[in-house]
Amino acid sequence: MRRRLIPDIVNLQAFECAARHQNFSRAAEELNLTQSAVSRQISDLEQQTGLKLFERVRQRVVLSEAGLRLLPEVKDLLLRSERLMIGAVAAGQMKLSLKVATLPTFGTRWLVPRLGRFLDEHRDVAITVESRSKPFNFEEDNFDLAIHYGLPAWAGAVATFLCNETVLPVASRELAGRLGLISPDELSGAPLLHLTTRPKLWAQWFDLQELPTENAYPGARFDQFSMIIAAAIAGLGVALLPTYLIEDELKAGTLLPLFNLPMPTENSYYVVMPEKKQTNETATLFQDWLLSEVTPQ
């Protein structure tokens, strides 16, 4: 790493503030500095990058093309720096800390409703939960473990089986009554809801029921199961959903199974822990708790 290219966070703050106000004086007021100090910090950043970041237009300054390209990354870096410090301060007040990555809908609908039981038993753990839809580099994001759907393969990490997944065709009570379906072959004329990351899911279900798959593809598409659940509840169509994500809706009758024809999906859920964290007792404790929360299917 070339340290001469590592920017001063103070200079980045001055750049972001001046860009937002399009005025060095107002930026100085917000930062409780003099205008000359703000100008000097931005000049230092320009010298370090070799870029001219601002153009003067009448009584204000506007970003140059180089400044416009740099600003989004500076904002992201400042935001991540702030989060880092807030997390460090929060963790410093606790004995232990844990950073967990989870799939968005899994986290919202399965993990979070159960998380209170872990926190009640381990009040000395400061936990951070963030959503991740795809595998990532543990070295860069510094998570202690992740919940992953797919195959038990993750570079530099160990995957432990958590649970299988079973999907079931469901619809809102109103839509189910309106469709009045008696057999699976009648689904060919019903509106279907699809997950963009699993475009063949309905086709696989149709194939399992020995139905023609050409009718399995039309319908609205969404990129998260959470949106499909909301769409199904709103009566927009029939959804093929993992049963663990709709436990409450099935119990309350908000969503009804159209047929008792569940289908196990090809992949499974795993708890993934980086190899370097295998001796982390808090991460291991959380993994054991996750495994204990799974109901055998």
TrEMBL record:
Gene Ontology MF, one: DNA binding
Ranges of residues in domain HTH lysR-type: 12-64
Cross-referenced SUPFAM superfamilies: Periplasmic binding protein-like II, Winged helix' DNA-binding domain
InterPro entries xrefs: LysR-type_TF_proteobact-type, LysR_HTH_N, LysR_subst-bd, WH-like_DNA-bd_sf, WH_DNA-bd_sf
Keywords from the UniProt entry: DNA-binding, Transcription, Transcription regulation
Similarity comment text for this entry: Belongs to the LysR transcriptional regulatory family.
Protein name (Swiss-Prot/TrEMBL): DNA-binding transcriptional LysR family regulator
Source organism per UniProt: Rhizobium tropici
